[in-house]
Specification:
Blueprint: E1 7-15, H1 22-30, E2 36-37, E3 52-53, H2 68-83, E4 98-103, H3 109-118, H4 121-127, H5 129-137, E5 146-149, H6 155-168, E6 174-181, H7 185-193, E7 217-225, H8 226-231, E8 238-240, H9 260-273, H10 291-299
Parallel strand pairs: 4-5, 4-6
Antiparallel strand pairs: 1-7, 1-8, 2-3, 6-7
Helix pairs in contact: 2-5, 3-4
Length: about 300
Amino acid sequence: MRNAPDIVITGCGLVTALGRDSASTWEGICAGRSGLGPLTGLEQQPPDLRSGGQAPPLPADELPQAPREVRYLRHAVMEALGSAGIDPHAVPYAPPRVSAVMGTTLHGMRSAGVYFRTRDLGALRRFQASAVLVQVLEGLGIGGTAVTTCAACSSGLTSIALGATLLQTKEADLVIAGGYDPISEYAYAGFHSLRLVAEGSPRPFGLDRPGMKLGEGYGVLILERAAEAQKRGAAALARLMGFGESADAHHLTQPHPAGRGAVLAMQRALADAGLAAEAIDLITAHATGTLDNDRSEAAA
């Protein structure tokens, strides 16, 4: 795809433990502030509950009856569209040319708990990722591809890569791409049963690293081809130069010890961008603070 059209990011939206928009999240990062605190939003409080990264409350009038993941992801989508200078109810492209790609591992996981407690089959329907996406996109004039990807902790990046591909192949003119995962008692219990949830502060890549913290996050980007974005007067926040993907299938819960999958993904991204490794100024690590992941990532 080296000769494919340039893809730019024209908008972004974030809800994190540091804030309910991009600006407050960035301010928190620059100030060195931790978003860790009580996980009061879990469906129930386990006896050995440890701190985590919970997003701050949303305004009470924002989809008050919708599931948590729908409310927060919709909030991030609306911020991203506004950031791109797009009226959510008057998107400047024909609906069939506007697509959405989201990545997640938990989708509507919290609704599964509702089903187990009530046996309400409607809750199982809300459990599906497609049901989450339908509610999030309602009324936004999106008539193109709407799909959810699942690639574990790289689901959000995978959605951006797929969104860029839709633009490069002229399958879409605008893509809303991103990732989300809500806090969930099942996710917490699962990682805690693997003894991966740290009691104190996480220390990624430290010799005494104690493990990870569980939290939630909702991140959305607006992707467009550079030429079309320029035509409508949109400012490019960044240019997507290349991406790479891989799946080493080494083990159900452990990465390859030498980071084989990560190496292959990085090599492919560099090749796609036509760059040498020396040209890279920043590496954003997964950095879970767990023994196997950190060792594998450092090796990669």
